[in-house]
Amino acid sequence: MTESSSQPDLHPPGQVQQQITVPDDIAMVALLGQRDEVLRAIEHGFPTVDVHVRGNVMTLTGAPGDVALAERLLDELMQIARSAQPLSADAVERAITILTASTTERPAQVLTMNILSSRGRTIRPKTVGQKDYVQAIDANTVVFGIGPAGTGKTYLAMAKAVQALQAKQVNRIVLTRPAVEAGERLGFLPGTLNDKIDPYLRPLYDALHDMLDPESIPRLMAAGTIEVAPLAYMRGRTLNDAFIILDEAQNTSAEQMKMFLTRLGFGSRVVVTGDVTQIDLPDGTRSGLQVVREILSEVDDVAFCELSSADVVRHRLEAEIIDAYGRYDREQEARDERSLNRSGRRSAPGGGRR
Fold first, then answer.
1. Over the stretch 9-56, which tens digit does the pLDDT of each residue have?
2. What is the DSSP string of 31-89?
3. Per-residue pLDDT tens for 307-348?
4. Distance of alpha carbon 176 from the chain centroid
5. 204 Cβ partners below 8 Å, 6+ apart?
6. In whole angstroms, how far apart are CA 98 and each of 71, 77, 123, 160, 311?
């Protein structure tokens, strides 16, 4: 743990000063980051706190609440540094988000949870929502990951699938998604089957290449250990000892969702991912992802995980764009409802002017 001391006589009125001694088992360069990247991120996260470093002693000066929170942040960052995970400005930002959120989770618990190590990098959850999602996959046979783009729904599910395959918990991975743009009637498209479906399944291939040696993927696919196919090719099958992922599930009909879920065999696990704000189905067709929650919400061993803009792990702007669209949609719905109410009053008997 860190050692801290208060020096009330060395700071302006209304402020406190805390000195934190970094233990000898933590290298200052690891804690502060290359070219003080981490230190600058701490200062950016707490603009009202002055951070001074001398040797292995860090001095924090500022308002009592801000200094206390910055001290907690430093303690969490040291816990992460002890795990041999490199610190970055992104880790600081995510740790601050977790500390200021209404959750009992500690940043070090979230940011040091390893899922899969491959090709010199480790895949980990980066938010509390992502950690809950990964734990739900461990604890349930069927998991629905619902949320906007960039929240890691598919990527984390793929990482868990590869982890389960490497641990011999399953014998194969089956990846599928609806080819809505082609209406799943692929016969009229030119080329072989692979040529026809490749554009719709490319995001799944891209994730696989991040997690496995690219040279091994053709061999695993030829052996049937990894199968990537459009949803239409799941009909009539029973999949045993498999980790099955249905991506872009918002573009399934209720009938397709039922068909997919009844492919589940012994020893298999299912993860269904989708974003109910990006439905590409024809007008009048209700998404199977919307319907299934009403049907399965009380079924044991089935979990629904909601991810939000707070779980977006792409560019900072993406979360703001998602929130802005959400506000616009809510305002549009409110305007439409007011317009409908006014129209109803005008058409009611005696409602018009004479």
1. 456 677 899 999 999 999 999 999 888 999 999 999 999 999 999 999
2. HH-GGGHHHHHHHHH-TTSEEEEETTEEEEEE-HHHHHHHHHHHHHHHHHHHTTPPP-H
3. 988 888 765 565 667 678 778 877 887 777 777 777 666 666
4. 19
5. 154, 158, 175, 177, 228, 245, 247
6. 14, 12, 19, 23, 11
